[in-house]
Amino acid sequence: MISFKNITLLLSDKIILDNVSLNIERNITSVIVGPSGAGKSSILKIILALWKPDYGEVLFDGININKLTEEELTRIRKNIGIVFQNNALFDSLTVAENILYFLPDKKKLSDIELKYKVEELLSFVNLEGTENFFPEELSGGMKKRVAIARALAIDPKVILFDEPTTGLDPINAESILHLISKLKKSGTTSILVTHILNDAITIGDKLIVINNGRIVESGTVDEILQSSNNFVQKFFYQINRGNYLLDSYTNQYGLVNVK
Amino acid sequence: MPRLINIVGELQGFTVLIRDIFVNIGSIKDNWQETIQEMYLIGSKAFLIIFLGGLFTGVILAIETGHQLKLFGATSLISRTMSLGMVRELGPIITGLLLAARTGAKNTSELGAMQLSDQIDALKAFGANPIQKLVIPRTVAALLIFLPLTLIADITGILGGMLVANQTFHVDFSSFWKTAIGALKMKDLFVGFLKPFFFAFFISTISCYLGLTTKGGTSGLGKNTINAVVLTSVIVLIIDFIFTKIVWEVL
Hints:
Low-confidence stretches of chain A: 255-259
Helix content of chain B: over 70%
CATH class of chain A: Alpha Beta
Structural class of chain B: mainly alpha
Mean pLDDT of chain A: 86
Structural class of chain A: alpha/beta
Number of strands of chain B: 0
Oligomer: heterodimer
Protein backbone atom coordinates (compact mmCIF):
# COMPACT_ATOMS: atom_id res chain seq x y z
CA MET A 1 0.00 0.00 0.00
CA ILE A 2 2.77 2.42 1.01
CA SER A 3 6.37 1.87 -0.04
CA PHE A 4 9.54 3.79 0.73
CA LYS A 5 12.32 3.23 -1.78
CA ASN A 6 15.76 4.35 -0.64
CA ILE A 7 14.47 7.43 1.17
CA THR A 8 17.04 9.86 2.49
CA LEU A 9 15.95 12.98 4.38
CA LEU A 10 18.28 15.78 5.37
CA LEU A 11 17.37 18.65 7.68
CA SER A 12 19.95 21.43 8.00
CA ASP A 13 22.56 19.02 6.56
CA LYS A 14 21.81 16.48 9.29
CA ILE A 15 20.78 13.02 8.07
CA ILE A 16 17.37 12.24 9.55
CA LEU A 17 16.57 9.21 7.40
CA ASP A 18 19.34 7.29 5.69
CA ASN A 19 18.44 5.17 2.65
CA VAL A 20 15.23 3.85 4.22
CA SER A 21 13.18 1.25 2.32
CA LEU A 22 10.01 -0.23 3.77
CA ASN A 23 6.62 -1.62 2.83
CA ILE A 24 3.36 -1.03 4.66
CA GLU A 25 0.83 -3.71 3.83
CA ARG A 26 -2.93 -3.27 3.70
CA ASN A 27 -5.27 -4.25 6.58
CA ILE A 28 -2.59 -4.77 9.20
CA THR A 29 -1.12 -2.65 12.00
CA SER A 30 2.48 -1.75 11.33
CA VAL A 31 4.47 -0.28 14.20
CA ILE A 32 7.57 1.81 13.66
CA VAL A 33 9.50 1.50 16.89
CA GLY A 34 12.78 3.00 18.02
CA PRO A 35 14.36 5.40 20.49
CA SER A 36 13.57 9.14 20.56
CA GLY A 37 15.21 11.04 17.70
CA ALA A 38 15.53 7.92 15.54
CA GLY A 39 13.46 9.45 12.70
CA LYS A 40 10.13 7.71 13.37
CA SER A 41 7.86 10.77 13.14
CA SER A 42 9.72 11.92 10.00
CA ILE A 43 8.42 8.79 8.27
CA LEU A 44 4.83 9.84 9.02
CA LYS A 45 5.48 13.37 7.74
CA ILE A 46 6.92 11.94 4.54
CA ILE A 47 3.91 9.62 4.08
CA LEU A 48 1.68 12.72 4.30
CA ALA A 49 4.03 14.61 1.96
CA LEU A 50 4.37 17.34 4.59
CA TRP A 51 8.11 16.80 4.16
CA LYS A 52 9.70 15.86 0.87
CA PRO A 53 12.67 13.48 0.99
CA ASP A 54 15.94 14.59 -0.57
CA TYR A 55 16.38 11.23 -2.30
CA GLY A 56 14.19 8.24 -3.05
CA GLU A 57 10.55 7.57 -3.85
CA VAL A 58 7.40 7.24 -1.75
CA LEU A 59 4.66 5.21 -3.39
CA PHE A 60 1.02 5.33 -2.23
CA ASP A 61 -0.99 2.65 -4.03
CA GLY A 62 1.74 2.66 -6.69
CA ILE A 63 1.72 6.47 -7.19
CA ASN A 64 4.94 8.38 -6.53
CA ILE A 65 3.61 11.12 -4.25
CA ASN A 66 6.75 13.27 -4.52
CA LYS A 67 5.92 14.08 -8.13
CA LEU A 68 2.35 15.21 -7.45
CA THR A 69 1.06 18.77 -7.45
CA GLU A 70 -0.41 20.18 -4.24
CA GLU A 71 -3.91 19.59 -5.64
CA GLU A 72 -3.16 15.94 -6.41
CA LEU A 73 -1.57 15.53 -3.00
CA THR A 74 -4.72 16.88 -1.37
CA ARG A 75 -6.69 14.05 -3.01
CA ILE A 76 -4.19 11.47 -1.70
CA ARG A 77 -4.21 13.00 1.79
CA LYS A 78 -7.98 12.65 1.99
CA ASN A 79 -7.38 8.88 2.24
CA ILE A 80 -5.12 9.24 5.27
CA GLY A 81 -6.18 10.01 8.82
CA ILE A 82 -3.62 11.06 11.39
CA VAL A 83 -3.57 11.33 15.16
CA PHE A 84 -0.78 13.73 16.08
CA GLN A 85 1.35 13.28 19.18
CA ASN A 86 -0.07 16.48 20.69
CA ASN A 87 -3.48 15.85 19.08
CA ALA A 88 -3.52 19.14 17.07
CA LEU A 89 -7.19 19.77 17.85
CA PHE A 90 -8.47 23.23 16.93
CA ASP A 91 -8.71 25.16 20.21
CA SER A 92 -11.44 27.52 19.05
CA LEU A 93 -13.79 24.73 17.95
CA THR A 94 -15.93 22.38 20.02
CA VAL A 95 -15.41 18.62 20.01
CA ALA A 96 -18.24 18.20 17.48
CA GLU A 97 -16.85 20.95 15.22
CA ASN A 98 -13.38 19.41 15.40
CA ILE A 99 -14.74 16.01 14.40
CA LEU A 100 -16.76 17.43 11.51
CA TYR A 101 -14.09 19.88 10.31
CA PHE A 102 -12.62 17.60 7.65
CA LEU A 103 -15.73 15.55 6.95
CA PRO A 104 -16.07 15.30 3.17
CA ASP A 105 -19.32 16.57 1.60
CA LYS A 106 -20.62 17.81 4.94
CA LYS A 107 -22.62 20.52 3.18
CA LYS A 108 -24.74 17.78 1.61
CA LEU A 109 -25.69 16.39 5.03
CA SER A 110 -28.52 17.68 7.20
CA ASP A 111 -27.94 18.87 10.76
CA ILE A 112 -29.50 15.66 12.08
CA GLU A 113 -27.20 13.52 9.94
CA LEU A 114 -24.18 15.50 11.13
CA LYS A 115 -25.30 15.15 14.75
CA TYR A 116 -25.74 11.41 14.27
CA LYS A 117 -22.27 11.15 12.70
CA VAL A 118 -20.69 12.93 15.68
CA GLU A 119 -22.60 10.76 18.17
CA GLU A 120 -21.56 7.61 16.32
CA LEU A 121 -17.88 8.55 16.35
CA LEU A 122 -17.94 9.71 19.97
CA SER A 123 -19.62 6.47 20.95
CA PHE A 124 -16.85 4.53 19.17
CA VAL A 125 -14.20 6.34 21.24
CA ASN A 126 -16.32 6.19 24.44
CA LEU A 127 -16.79 9.94 24.76
CA GLU A 128 -20.55 10.29 24.57
CA GLY A 129 -21.96 13.65 25.66
CA THR A 130 -18.81 15.72 25.05
CA GLU A 131 -19.98 17.28 21.76
CA ASN A 132 -20.07 20.84 23.08
CA PHE A 133 -16.87 20.77 25.11
CA PHE A 134 -13.81 22.71 23.96
CA PRO A 135 -10.45 20.87 23.81
CA GLU A 136 -9.10 22.84 26.79
CA GLU A 137 -11.91 21.35 28.91
CA LEU A 138 -10.78 17.77 28.19
CA SER A 139 -8.09 15.59 29.77
CA GLY A 140 -5.11 14.34 27.73
CA GLY A 141 -6.70 10.94 27.15
CA MET A 142 -10.02 12.48 26.11
CA LYS A 143 -8.27 14.81 23.65
CA LYS A 144 -6.50 11.81 22.14
CA ARG A 145 -9.82 10.04 21.69
CA VAL A 146 -11.33 13.13 20.00
CA ALA A 147 -8.30 13.20 17.69
CA ILE A 148 -8.96 9.55 16.82
CA ALA A 149 -12.64 10.31 16.17
CA ARG A 150 -11.63 13.21 13.91
CA ALA A 151 -9.26 10.96 11.98
CA LEU A 152 -11.98 8.30 11.59
CA ALA A 153 -14.55 10.85 10.40
CA ILE A 154 -12.97 11.01 6.95
CA ASP A 155 -13.25 7.21 6.61
CA PRO A 156 -9.54 6.87 5.81
CA LYS A 157 -7.86 4.02 3.95
CA VAL A 158 -5.00 4.25 6.41
CA ILE A 159 -4.67 5.86 9.81
CA LEU A 160 -1.40 7.09 11.30
CA PHE A 161 -0.74 7.35 15.04
CA ASP A 162 2.21 9.42 16.23
CA GLU A 163 3.18 8.29 19.76
CA PRO A 164 -0.47 7.71 20.73
CA THR A 165 0.12 6.79 24.37
CA THR A 166 3.04 9.08 25.19
CA GLY A 167 2.27 11.31 28.17
CA LEU A 168 -0.87 9.40 29.16
CA ASP A 169 -1.42 7.60 32.44
CA PRO A 170 -1.56 3.78 32.19
CA ILE A 171 -5.36 3.62 32.28
CA ASN A 172 -5.80 6.15 29.47
CA ALA A 173 -2.94 4.57 27.52
CA GLU A 174 -4.70 1.23 27.84
CA SER A 175 -7.98 2.68 26.55
CA ILE A 176 -6.21 4.21 23.52
CA LEU A 177 -4.56 0.87 22.75
CA HIS A 178 -7.95 -0.76 23.11
CA LEU A 179 -9.35 1.67 20.51
CA ILE A 180 -6.51 0.89 18.12
CA SER A 181 -7.23 -2.83 18.67
CA LYS A 182 -10.88 -2.22 17.77
CA LEU A 183 -9.75 -0.60 14.53
CA LYS A 184 -7.40 -3.49 13.89
CA LYS A 185 -10.27 -5.97 14.25
CA SER A 186 -12.29 -3.96 11.72
CA GLY A 187 -9.46 -4.39 9.20
CA THR A 188 -8.26 -0.77 9.16
CA THR A 189 -4.70 -0.26 7.96
CA SER A 190 -2.81 1.48 10.75
CA ILE A 191 0.72 2.77 11.11
CA LEU A 192 1.81 3.50 14.64
CA VAL A 193 4.97 5.26 15.69
CA THR A 194 6.12 4.69 19.24
CA HIS A 195 9.12 4.30 21.49
CA ILE A 196 7.05 2.32 24.01
CA LEU A 197 7.93 -1.32 23.44
CA ASN A 198 4.91 -2.78 25.23
CA ASP A 199 2.61 -0.82 22.90
CA ALA A 200 4.51 -2.07 19.87
CA ILE A 201 4.33 -5.69 20.95
CA THR A 202 0.72 -5.51 22.14
CA ILE A 203 -0.68 -3.89 19.02
CA GLY A 204 1.66 -4.58 16.11
CA ASP A 205 1.24 -7.17 13.38
CA LYS A 206 4.49 -6.01 11.88
CA LEU A 207 7.30 -4.17 13.65
CA ILE A 208 9.84 -1.94 11.94
CA VAL A 209 12.76 -1.13 14.23
CA ILE A 210 14.57 2.11 13.44
CA ASN A 211 17.69 3.66 14.92
CA ASN A 212 19.71 6.71 13.83
CA GLY A 213 17.60 7.10 10.68
CA ARG A 214 18.16 3.52 9.52
CA ILE A 215 15.90 0.51 9.61
CA VAL A 216 17.69 -2.14 11.61
CA GLU A 217 15.07 -4.89 11.51
CA SER A 218 11.52 -5.56 10.43
CA GLY A 219 9.16 -8.51 10.78
CA THR A 220 6.46 -9.98 12.97
CA VAL A 221 6.65 -9.60 16.76
CA ASP A 222 8.07 -13.13 17.13
CA GLU A 223 10.66 -12.53 14.43
CA ILE A 224 11.78 -9.29 16.08
CA LEU A 225 11.97 -10.83 19.55
CA GLN A 226 14.14 -13.61 18.15
CA SER A 227 16.34 -11.24 16.15
CA SER A 228 20.08 -11.61 16.51
CA ASN A 229 20.64 -7.91 15.71
CA ASN A 230 22.63 -6.29 18.53
CA PHE A 231 20.57 -3.09 18.67
CA VAL A 232 17.26 -4.97 18.62
CA GLN A 233 18.41 -7.28 21.40
CA LYS A 234 19.62 -4.37 23.50
CA PHE A 235 16.47 -2.30 22.86
CA PHE A 236 14.02 -5.13 23.54
CA TYR A 237 15.98 -6.31 26.58
CA GLN A 238 14.30 -3.41 28.41
CA ILE A 239 10.98 -5.29 28.35
CA ASN A 240 12.48 -8.35 29.99
CA ARG A 241 14.30 -6.13 32.45
CA GLY A 242 11.06 -4.25 33.24
CA ASN A 243 9.18 -7.49 33.78
CA TYR A 244 11.98 -8.83 35.94
CA LEU A 245 11.88 -5.71 38.15
CA LEU A 246 8.09 -5.92 38.43
CA ASP A 247 8.28 -9.59 39.41
CA SER A 248 10.96 -8.86 42.01
CA TYR A 249 8.94 -5.99 43.45
CA THR A 250 5.68 -7.95 43.69
CA ASN A 251 7.45 -10.96 45.20
CA GLN A 252 9.31 -8.82 47.74
CA TYR A 253 6.20 -7.01 48.99
CA GLY A 254 3.72 -9.81 48.50
CA LEU A 255 1.65 -7.78 46.02
CA VAL A 256 -0.52 -9.15 43.25
CA ASN A 257 1.18 -8.79 39.87
CA VAL A 258 -1.39 -7.19 37.59
CA LYS A 259 0.40 -8.10 34.37
CA MET B 1 26.19 37.36 4.48
CA PRO B 2 24.08 34.66 6.20
CA ARG B 3 21.75 37.47 7.36
CA LEU B 4 21.36 38.70 3.77
CA ILE B 5 20.64 35.16 2.57
CA ASN B 6 18.08 34.88 5.37
CA ILE B 7 16.34 38.11 4.30
CA VAL B 8 16.28 37.01 0.66
CA GLY B 9 14.84 33.65 1.76
CA GLU B 10 12.10 35.36 3.79
CA LEU B 11 11.23 37.66 0.86
CA GLN B 12 11.02 34.63 -1.40
CA GLY B 13 8.72 32.88 1.07
CA PHE B 14 6.53 35.97 1.39
CA THR B 15 6.30 36.30 -2.41
CA VAL B 16 5.19 32.67 -2.66
CA LEU B 17 2.49 33.37 -0.05
CA ILE B 18 1.23 36.37 -2.05
CA ARG B 19 1.15 34.24 -5.21
CA ASP B 20 -0.76 31.50 -3.35
CA ILE B 21 -3.29 34.06 -2.10
CA PHE B 22 -4.01 35.24 -5.64
CA VAL B 23 -4.09 31.68 -7.02
CA ASN B 24 -6.54 30.53 -4.31
CA ILE B 25 -8.64 33.68 -3.96
CA GLY B 26 -11.65 31.89 -5.54
CA SER B 27 -11.88 29.68 -2.43
CA ILE B 28 -13.28 32.64 -0.49
CA LYS B 29 -16.80 31.59 -1.49
CA ASP B 30 -16.35 28.39 0.56
CA ASN B 31 -14.99 30.29 3.55
CA TRP B 32 -17.42 33.20 3.99
CA GLN B 33 -18.26 32.12 7.51
CA GLU B 34 -14.61 32.39 8.60
CA THR B 35 -14.30 35.71 6.73
CA ILE B 36 -17.33 37.22 8.46
CA GLN B 37 -16.06 36.00 11.82
CA GLU B 38 -12.70 37.67 11.13
CA MET B 39 -14.48 40.89 10.08
CA TYR B 40 -16.29 40.82 13.40
CA LEU B 41 -13.04 40.23 15.31
CA ILE B 42 -11.18 43.00 13.47
CA GLY B 43 -14.10 45.42 13.24
CA SER B 44 -16.23 45.33 16.33
CA LYS B 45 -13.34 44.58 18.66
CA ALA B 46 -11.28 47.47 17.26
CA PHE B 47 -14.16 49.93 17.11
CA LEU B 48 -13.54 51.55 20.50
CA ILE B 49 -9.80 52.04 20.04
CA ILE B 50 -10.29 53.45 16.53
CA PHE B 51 -13.07 55.73 17.80
CA LEU B 52 -10.90 57.05 20.62
CA GLY B 53 -7.77 57.22 18.43
CA GLY B 54 -9.59 59.28 15.80
CA LEU B 55 -11.35 61.49 18.34
CA PHE B 56 -8.24 62.44 20.31
CA THR B 57 -6.14 62.93 17.18
CA GLY B 58 -8.78 65.37 15.92
CA VAL B 59 -9.00 67.15 19.26
CA ILE B 60 -5.22 67.53 19.56
CA LEU B 61 -4.84 68.65 15.93
CA ALA B 62 -7.57 71.27 16.44
CA ILE B 63 -5.98 72.62 19.63
CA GLU B 64 -2.48 72.82 18.10
CA THR B 65 -3.51 74.39 14.78
CA GLY B 66 -6.20 76.57 16.40
CA HIS B 67 -3.72 78.37 18.64
CA GLN B 68 -1.37 79.05 15.71
CA LEU B 69 -4.16 80.20 13.39
CA LYS B 70 -5.58 82.45 16.12
CA LEU B 71 -2.38 84.53 15.93
CA PHE B 72 -3.39 85.51 12.39
CA GLY B 73 -7.11 85.70 13.13
CA ALA B 74 -7.68 82.76 10.84
CA THR B 75 -9.47 80.31 13.15
CA SER B 76 -12.01 79.68 10.41
CA LEU B 77 -9.28 77.70 8.66
CA ILE B 78 -9.25 75.10 11.46
CA SER B 79 -12.04 73.21 9.70
CA ARG B 80 -10.11 73.04 6.43
CA THR B 81 -6.97 71.78 8.20
CA MET B 82 -9.01 69.27 10.13
CA SER B 83 -10.82 67.72 7.19
CA LEU B 84 -7.79 67.56 4.90
CA GLY B 85 -5.51 66.38 7.70
CA MET B 86 -7.86 63.71 8.96
CA VAL B 87 -9.13 62.32 5.64
CA ARG B 88 -5.85 62.39 3.76
CA GLU B 89 -3.30 61.57 6.44
CA LEU B 90 -4.17 61.16 10.08
CA GLY B 91 -7.34 59.06 9.81
CA PRO B 92 -5.73 56.36 7.64
CA ILE B 93 -2.42 56.39 9.47
CA ILE B 94 -3.90 56.24 12.98
CA THR B 95 -6.18 53.39 11.84
CA GLY B 96 -3.28 51.71 10.07
CA LEU B 97 -0.97 51.86 13.07
CA LEU B 98 -3.62 50.77 15.56
CA LEU B 99 -4.66 47.87 13.35
CA ALA B 100 -1.04 46.95 12.65
CA ALA B 101 -0.65 46.44 16.39
CA ARG B 102 -4.01 44.81 16.99
CA THR B 103 -4.63 42.74 13.86
CA GLY B 104 -0.94 42.08 13.18
CA ALA B 105 -0.37 40.69 16.68
CA LYS B 106 -3.61 38.69 16.55
CA ASN B 107 -2.82 37.03 13.21
CA THR B 108 0.78 36.17 14.05
CA SER B 109 0.06 34.86 17.54
CA GLU B 110 -2.94 32.80 16.40
CA LEU B 111 -1.30 31.23 13.36
CA GLY B 112 2.03 30.88 15.20
CA ALA B 113 0.37 28.97 18.04
CA MET B 114 -1.39 26.78 15.47
CA GLN B 115 1.93 26.16 13.74
CA LEU B 116 3.67 25.20 16.99
CA SER B 117 0.86 22.84 18.05
CA ASP B 118 0.79 21.02 14.67
CA GLN B 119 -2.65 22.44 13.80
CA ILE B 120 -1.31 23.80 10.48
CA ASP B 121 0.16 20.37 9.70
CA ALA B 122 -3.19 18.84 10.67
CA LEU B 123 -4.93 21.05 8.10
CA LYS B 124 -2.49 19.99 5.38
CA ALA B 125 -2.55 16.35 6.48
CA PHE B 126 -6.33 16.15 6.18
CA GLY B 127 -6.25 17.70 2.72
CA ALA B 128 -7.20 21.29 3.64
CA ASN B 129 -5.20 24.25 2.39
CA PRO B 130 -4.07 26.60 5.22
CA ILE B 131 -3.88 29.52 2.76
CA GLN B 132 -7.53 29.01 1.83
CA LYS B 133 -8.73 28.28 5.35
CA LEU B 134 -6.70 30.79 7.35
CA VAL B 135 -4.86 33.41 5.29
CA ILE B 136 -7.42 34.36 2.64
CA PRO B 137 -10.34 34.88 5.08
CA ARG B 138 -8.12 37.09 7.26
CA THR B 139 -6.86 39.09 4.27
CA VAL B 140 -10.29 39.57 2.69
CA ALA B 141 -11.81 40.47 6.08
CA ALA B 142 -9.10 43.12 6.57
CA LEU B 143 -9.64 44.47 3.04
CA LEU B 144 -13.37 44.82 3.68
CA ILE B 145 -13.27 46.26 7.19
CA PHE B 146 -10.26 48.65 7.17
CA LEU B 147 -12.04 51.31 5.08
CA PRO B 148 -15.12 51.56 7.34
CA LEU B 149 -12.83 51.75 10.37
CA THR B 150 -10.81 54.50 8.67
CA LEU B 151 -14.03 56.40 7.97
CA ILE B 152 -14.90 56.16 11.66
CA ALA B 153 -11.48 57.60 12.57
CA ASP B 154 -11.92 60.38 9.95
CA ILE B 155 -15.41 61.34 11.13
CA THR B 156 -14.70 61.19 14.88
CA GLY B 157 -11.51 63.19 14.31
CA ILE B 158 -13.36 65.92 12.41
CA LEU B 159 -16.17 65.96 15.00
CA GLY B 160 -13.62 66.20 17.82
CA GLY B 161 -11.95 69.09 16.02
CA MET B 162 -15.33 70.73 15.47
CA LEU B 163 -16.08 70.54 19.19
CA VAL B 164 -12.72 72.13 20.07
CA ALA B 165 -13.12 74.79 17.36
CA ASN B 166 -16.54 75.68 18.72
CA GLN B 167 -15.78 75.62 22.44
CA THR B 168 -12.26 77.09 22.41
CA PHE B 169 -12.13 79.22 19.28
CA HIS B 170 -15.84 80.08 18.95
CA VAL B 171 -16.19 78.74 15.41
CA ASP B 172 -19.80 78.12 14.46
CA PHE B 173 -20.75 74.41 14.01
CA SER B 174 -22.48 74.84 10.65
CA SER B 175 -19.77 77.01 9.08
CA PHE B 176 -17.10 74.56 10.37
CA TRP B 177 -18.91 71.63 8.79
CA LYS B 178 -19.55 73.43 5.47
CA THR B 179 -15.92 74.54 5.13
CA ALA B 180 -14.60 71.15 6.23
CA ILE B 181 -16.64 69.24 3.65
CA GLY B 182 -16.14 71.87 0.94
CA ALA B 183 -12.35 71.66 1.31
CA LEU B 184 -12.28 68.00 0.33
CA LYS B 185 -11.54 67.38 -3.35
CA MET B 186 -11.95 64.07 -5.15
CA LYS B 187 -8.17 63.63 -5.07
CA ASP B 188 -8.17 63.84 -1.24
CA LEU B 189 -10.96 61.32 -0.90
CA PHE B 190 -9.28 59.00 -3.40
CA VAL B 191 -5.99 59.00 -1.51
CA GLY B 192 -7.60 58.78 1.92
CA PHE B 193 -9.85 55.90 0.93
CA LEU B 194 -7.25 53.98 -1.09
CA LYS B 195 -4.61 53.80 1.64
CA PRO B 196 -6.62 51.49 3.95
CA PHE B 197 -6.73 48.79 1.26
CA PHE B 198 -2.94 48.77 0.96
CA PHE B 199 -2.55 48.86 4.75
CA ALA B 200 -5.02 45.98 5.12
CA PHE B 201 -3.31 43.84 2.50
CA PHE B 202 0.21 44.24 3.85
CA ILE B 203 -0.70 44.08 7.56
CA SER B 204 -2.68 40.92 7.00
CA THR B 205 -0.27 39.09 4.68
CA ILE B 206 2.90 39.97 6.61
CA SER B 207 1.41 38.99 9.96
CA CYS B 208 0.00 35.73 8.54
CA TYR B 209 3.36 34.92 6.95
CA LEU B 210 5.18 35.47 10.24
CA GLY B 211 2.61 33.29 12.02
CA LEU B 212 2.92 30.44 9.53
CA THR B 213 6.72 30.48 9.70
CA THR B 214 6.93 30.53 13.50
CA LYS B 215 9.41 28.13 15.01
CA GLY B 216 11.43 27.95 18.20
CA GLY B 217 8.61 27.42 20.71
CA THR B 218 7.00 30.15 22.79
CA SER B 219 10.04 32.45 22.60
CA GLY B 220 9.94 32.17 18.80
CA LEU B 221 6.24 33.00 18.86
CA GLY B 222 6.87 36.07 21.05
CA LYS B 223 9.67 37.20 18.75
CA ASN B 224 7.58 36.79 15.61
CA THR B 225 4.62 38.63 17.17
CA ILE B 226 6.84 41.60 18.03
CA ASN B 227 8.35 41.46 14.53
CA ALA B 228 4.86 41.47 13.03
CA VAL B 229 3.84 44.63 14.92
CA VAL B 230 7.12 46.44 14.16
CA LEU B 231 7.29 45.40 10.52
CA THR B 232 3.65 46.16 9.69
CA SER B 233 3.86 49.55 11.47
CA VAL B 234 6.92 50.45 9.41
CA ILE B 235 5.17 49.27 6.22
CA VAL B 236 2.16 51.49 7.09
CA LEU B 237 4.47 54.51 7.44
CA ILE B 238 6.30 53.72 4.19
CA ILE B 239 3.06 53.27 2.22
CA ASP B 240 1.74 56.52 3.67
CA PHE B 241 4.92 58.33 2.62
CA ILE B 242 4.70 56.91 -0.92
CA PHE B 243 1.07 58.00 -1.27
CA THR B 244 1.76 61.50 0.05
CA LYS B 245 4.68 61.86 -2.35
CA ILE B 246 2.52 60.73 -5.27
CA VAL B 247 -0.30 63.08 -4.32
CA TRP B 248 1.90 66.16 -4.14
CA GLU B 249 4.17 65.42 -7.07
CA VAL B 250 2.21 63.35 -9.54
CA LEU B 251 -1.53 63.87 -9.15
